[in-house]
Fold this protein.
Amino acid sequence: MATEKEKKRVMVAIDESECSHHALEWALDNLRESISSSASASDEDRLLTIYTAQPLTNLLYFTESPELIESIEQQQKKVSMAVLKRAKETCAKRGVV
């Protein structure tokens, strides 16, 4: 168990894969004391940082039309928002907000 003087931060890298979602669930279940959202814990002790990792798109699309580039960017944003929404829901179910 962590003492009051220890400061722990937990970072989980996630993408749209089930493996990364499982990693988030594992961190929430097994590192609960470090990332608890209780009022008594300091921000440094309970910080859960989530990075949404997206697969790189083919760099050749820069020669394509601006409409195609915008469409790809919009799709990446949709995927990112869906991944973050799922992660937030998973955190909320486990009492971490």
The chain has one domain: 10-93. The radius of gyration is 17 Å. The longest helix spans residues 66-93.
